[in-house]
C-alpha cells in the first residue's frame, strides 16, 4: 500500500485487540466510521470484546484478522511480540504493519531496556521481512485514557522508512482524535519506545494519571 491515507473502505485489523491499548484504538477508529477487526489469540475472546465495545466492530483470531485486514496494528506486550509477529507474518506481505510495542521488561519498567536490534520496531521489521512495510506509533499514549471519549491532547509520533506508509498511520491517529506526527525513519522509534519508561517513572514520581507528550511550536508540514 502506498496511499497517503486510509480510505473509508480500508479494513484495519488490531492484532492483540482485546488488550487495553488495542481495544481502545479499535473503539476510537470504529467510532470514526472505520472498518475495524479486533484480533486475539482466541477468536471467541475477540468476538466478545467486539460485542462489548459496539460501533460495528467485529472479532476473530489474530491470524484471520491479519488475513482480512489491509492495515495491521499490532498491540501486544514485548514478551508476546515474537510469537505474534510469527503468527501473522504469512498474511502481512504487501501490507502496512504498525507496531506499537514498547520493550518494557518487568519488574524494572521505569528503566529503559532496549533490545539488541535497537528498538522493538526494527526487531519487528527483521521478523516480518522486506515484503512488509513496518511503521511504529502509539507508544506514549495511556491506554486507559484512550479508552474514554475525552480529548486527551496527546501527540502520536509515527516512524517508518516509507513516508506514504507513515502518512496512513498519522491519519489514523488523527481519526482516533489524537494528533499524529511524522517522527522520521524507523530507527528513530527507539526514542519514543524509550520515552515510555520515562513517562512511567514520571507517573509515579509526580502522581500523574497517564503522562503523555505534546510537541510545542507551530508545526507547518513541508510540501512534498
From TrEMBL:
GO terms for molecular function: coenzyme F420 binding; cupric reductase (NADH) activity; ferric-chelate reductase (NADPH) activity; NADP binding; oxidoreductase activity, acting on NAD(P)H. Gene3D superfamilies: NAD(P)-binding Rossmann-like Domain. It comes from Sphingomonas montanisoli. The lineage of its organism: Bacteria, Pseudomonadati, Pseudomonadota, Alphaproteobacteria, Sphingomonadales. Residues 11-103 form the Pyrroline-5-carboxylate reductase catalytic N-terminal domain. The keyword Oxidoreductase applies. GO terms for biological process: copper ion import; NADPH regeneration. Pfam families: F420_oxidored (PF03807). This is NADPH-dependent F420 reductase. The keyword Oxidoreductase applies. It comes from the Bacteria. Keywords: Oxidoreductase. GO terms for cellular component: plasma membrane. InterPro entries: NAD(P)-bd_dom_sf (IPR036291), NpdG (IPR010185), P5C_Rdtase_cat_N (IPR028939), STEAP_metalloreductase (IPR051267).
Amino acid at each position: 500500500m502506498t496511499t497517503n491515507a486510509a480510505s473509508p473502505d480500508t479494513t484495519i485489523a488490531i492484532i492483540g485487540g482485546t488488550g487495553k491499548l488495542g481495544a481502545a484504538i479499535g473503539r476510537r477508529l470504529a467510532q470514526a466510521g472505520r472498518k475495524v477487526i479486533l484480533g486475539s489469540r482466541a477468536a471467541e475472546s475477540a468476538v466478545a470484546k467486539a460485542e462489548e465495545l459496539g460501533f460495528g466492530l467485529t472479532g476473530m483470531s489474530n491470524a484471520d484478522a491479519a488475513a482480512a485486514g489491509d492495515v495491521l496494528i499490532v498491540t501486544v506486550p514485548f514478551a508476546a511480540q515474537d510469537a505474534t509477529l510469527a503468527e501473522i507474518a504469512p498474511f502481512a506481505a504487501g501490507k502496512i504493519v504498525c507496531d506499537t510495542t514498547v520493550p518494557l521488561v518487568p519488574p524494572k519498567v521505569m528503566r529503559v531496556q532496549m533490545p539488541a536490534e535497537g528498538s522493538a520496531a526494527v526487531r519487528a521489521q527483521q521478523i516480518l521481512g522486506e515484503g512488509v512495510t513496518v511503521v511504529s506509533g502509539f507508544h506514549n499514549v495511556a491506554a486507559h485514557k484512550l479508552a474514554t471519549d475525552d480529548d486527551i491532547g496527546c501527540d502520536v509520533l509515527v516512524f517508518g522508512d516509507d513516508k506514504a506508509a507513515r502518512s496512513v498511520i498519522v491519519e489514523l491517529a488523527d481519526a482516533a482524535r489524537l494528533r499524529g506526527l511524522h517522527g522520521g525513519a524507523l530507527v528513530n522509534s527507539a526514542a519514543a519506545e524509550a520515552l515510555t519508561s520515562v513517562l512511567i517513572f514520571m507517573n509515579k514520581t509526580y502522581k500523574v494519571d497517564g503522562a503523555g507528550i505534546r510537541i510545542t511550536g507551530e508545526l507547518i508540514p513541508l510540501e512534498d
